[in-house]
Amino acid sequence: MRMSSLSGSWSGLVAAVSLLFAGALTGSAEVKLPKIFGSNMVLQRDAPIAVWGWAAPNEAVSVAVGDAKADAKATAKGEWRLDLPAMKAGGPLKMTVKGSNEVVFDNVMVGAVWLCSGQSNMEMGIKACTDADTEIPAANNPAIRLFKVPKKFTQAPQNDVDAVWKVCTPETVAEGGWGGFSGAGYYFGKELNKALNVPVGLIDASWGGTRIEPWTPPAGFAKIPALASVYELVQIMDPGTDLHKQRLEKVLNDVGAWTEQAKKSIVEKTAAPILPKYPDELLPPKDQQVPATLYNGMLHPIVPFGIRGAIWYQGESNHGEGMLYTEKTKALVNGWREVWKNPKLQYFFVQIAPFYYGEENPNVVAEFWEAQAAVVPAVPDTGMIVTTDISDLKDIHPKNKKEVGRRLSLLALAKTYGKDVVCVGPSFKSMSVEGAKVRLTMDGVGGGLASRDGKPLDWFEMIDQDEGGFVKADAAIDGASIVLSAPSVKKPAAVRFAWSKIAEPNLMNKEGLPGVPFRAGEVPKRDQLVMVPEAKDYQLVYDLDLSKLGAAITYDVDNRAKINKPFDRVAYILELEAQGGQPQYVYASMDAFTDDLGKLGVPTVASGANFQQKVNNLTVFSNVQGIVTGGGLKGGNIEFWPNNYGPQNSKGIPNATNDGYDFGDQPSDPADGYGSMQIHNFEAKQILFAINSWKSGPQADIGIGNRKDDKNADWTFAKNGSSYAKKRLRVLVHLK
User: In this predicted model, what pLDDT tens digit does every residue of 327-364 receive, in sequence order?
Assistant: First the structure.
């Protein structure tokens, strides 16, 4: 009796489990598609249409859109893919997918599909843009369809995203994200729809503050030698790669060896070794900046959905990288083209807008613009728009995304769709020197060169071969050329245009498209010591590129071993590239304050240098306006120490204060502290130069003259070392 009861109960349990299992199989066997397919979507015209999804293993699947049909068979893993034949623009149509079940998508259009990607200036929604009050109510356009990809970063490639296609209406264009759908993307699509009269599908995959690397597929890094280390990291991170497997196996071996040793330690009653640390590169990504993670989470799920191309607005988060950004863009574009299996995938992008960027060197942004512009000749089927005329120097998010979208659409209309429209502004073609003048021949002239505000062309600069730095140039339009001249330039060597982070130049063509920043020619390499008559009688002791500052000082030149005679004078020359790109220097010589060559350089603890004293017979040369120059100056003073220090005028230096850091401060513990290397002229109430906090490297304090608009005249806490493109210190002595 009990046995029968038990048998019956067991049979019932087995039957119940079997039914549940069968139900689970039935559910998993349904034909499914990723959410990039859905009602209201737009399929890319004039190209085979990839459709894929999941079904039961070996299940037959058929897909039909209008008259186009295709069949597939699911793999043993339940994956299937097919390609519908190319279709002309039109709709609405119905997509029917049949397997063991039937899936139907309605209101499907065929037209132009574009990816809109990048960081915050692409993410910036239409509600945050100019004219939102009038544009949003007018956004009732059923021919435009929107697909907004949610933000997600992942370690491994994903198969789907949680999003749906929506018909463009005032409600759908303004919902979600940062002020709704991408403003730049929407205005781009609106212009295409108007010009081409075809349905337009826009896929918004953007995330504010992100770098370019997380958007790049691993395949993109693979073929760029400069990014080999990034590619290796991406491979190690991905659980599906051999490199990940090898790295994990090494961890297991290390932990196994540790386990054996730990067991032995228990028996022998000795201290166990430290458990090996789990490698960071095998951990899940900590944020959205990790290479390939946004591609994995936001783009891989929609590949290979047909797109005609991509528009891209990004770079602010990479803008300090110079020409390396060109290589990273190659990786992005070539990676996208490889995963989409479309070597001619179109790629149009926005040159980032001018912006103050704090105390950062103005040339850094200009050099980044140069790197962005270099993408176009380096990568086929690409184009760049310029935004120097629609920027906001106080807002890194300029609001005029309508014009951004329009200019991007001009590139697409001209380069992708073969329309006869001017799509770029004036850009440098060639340079020729004509006596004291320079002729710049330009491309992108369109209907002719012009000034946006009717005033003389601005932001052109020249430099002479023999003397001076870059100076403002007079610029005159001469047909397709611009002729430059400047009173102080007799032998032109090089020119530059809009070479500053705050440049908003007025050069344009008559179609209203702005000029592209550039530089041309060879900037002469001149030694500022030539400007100092007495320097020819001095011997070089140290030469130091201040970009190499750190806790340990390693001089580029160290001639101590070569100087065997006593010296009676010491000289210092500090050279900086000024905020406007002008070279600045100050030279200060004085009677020797030590007979030890080792104590003349940067006063580190290791050097043993520690001097707080007046110096005699100060001589100063400088090209910095306001610096008192001449010989026999009586206000010489030095503060050389590695210590911390306070603003108290402990030595009673004339004209110094106790209220701020200047030419009269007080060293304090610890001895290996903040650090000061300063030369002063206290009679003139001037800091001649200061190099402080050298252990901070790029954040060291460096300056010539008094720091303006700050109570700390000696540059203490300026943290401005990285703002200089060039910074060099030399120390010299005069032998007896």
Answer: 999 999 999 999 999 999 999 999 999 999 987 878 88
Single out the residue in 521, 539, 562 at which a domain terminates.
521
How far apart CA 246 and CA 230 sit, in angstroms, is: 17
215, 311, 347, 367 from 333: Cα distances, Å? 10, 11, 7, 21
- On whether both 541 and 512 belong to a single domain, the answer is no
Residue-wise pLDDT tens digits, 144-194: 999 999 999 999 999 999 999 999 999 999 999 999 999 999 999 999 999
| Structural domain total, the chain | 2
Helix axes 401-411, 183-196, angle to 10 degrees: 50
H/E segment holding residue 110: strand 102-118
What is 517-580 written as a DSSP string?
Answer: PEEEE------GGGG-GGGGG-EEEEEEEGGG-SSS---SEE-GGG--S-EEEEEEEEEEE-TT
Q: Show which of 521, 547, 574 is a domain's final residue.
A: 521
Task: Let me know whether 516 and 533 are in one domain.
Answer: no
Coil, strand or helix at 18: helix
Pairing of strands 79-84, 686-692: unpaired
Direct distance between the N- and C-terminal alpha carbons of the chain, in angstroms, rounded to an integer: 120
Task: Please state, rounded to an integer, the average pLDDT across all residues of the chain.
Answer: 94
pLDDT in tens, 495-519: 999 999 999 999 999 999 999 999 9
Residue 3: the pLDDT is: 35
**pLDDT, tens only, 86-110:** 999 999 999 999 999 999 999 999 9
The neighbouring-strand residues paired with 145 are 167, 201
From 608, 116, 134, select the one nearest 404 (Cα to Cα).
Answer: 116
CA 579 to CA 575: how far, in whole Å? 13
Rg, the chain, Cα only: 33
Within a 10 A sphere around the Cβ of 240, how many other Cβ atoms?
9
716 and 597 in a common domain: yes
CB neighbours (10 Å) of residue 646?
A: 12
Q: Same structural domain for residues 579 and 640?
A: yes
Which tens digit of pLDDT belongs to each residue from 258-310?
999 999 999 999 999 999 999 999 999 999 999 999 999 999 999 999 999 99
Report residue 723's pLDDT band, with 50, 70 and 90 as the boundaries: confident
Q: Name the 3-class secondary structure at 637.
A: strand
On whether residue 639 sits in a domain, the answer given is yes
Residues 493 and 628 placed together within one structural domain of the fold: no
Structure tokens that stand for 551 in this block = 């806790």
Q: Give how far Cα 658 sits from Cα of 113, 517, 649, 650, 666, Å.
A: 67, 47, 6, 9, 10
Supply the range of the domain harboring residue 479: 427-521
Do residue 608 and residue 716 come from a single domain?
Answer: yes
* Shared domain check, 697 and 614: yes
Determine the Cα–Cα distance for residues 115 and 311; give it in Å rounded to an integer.
Answer: 6
CA dihedral 464, 469, 472, 477 (to 10 degrees): 30
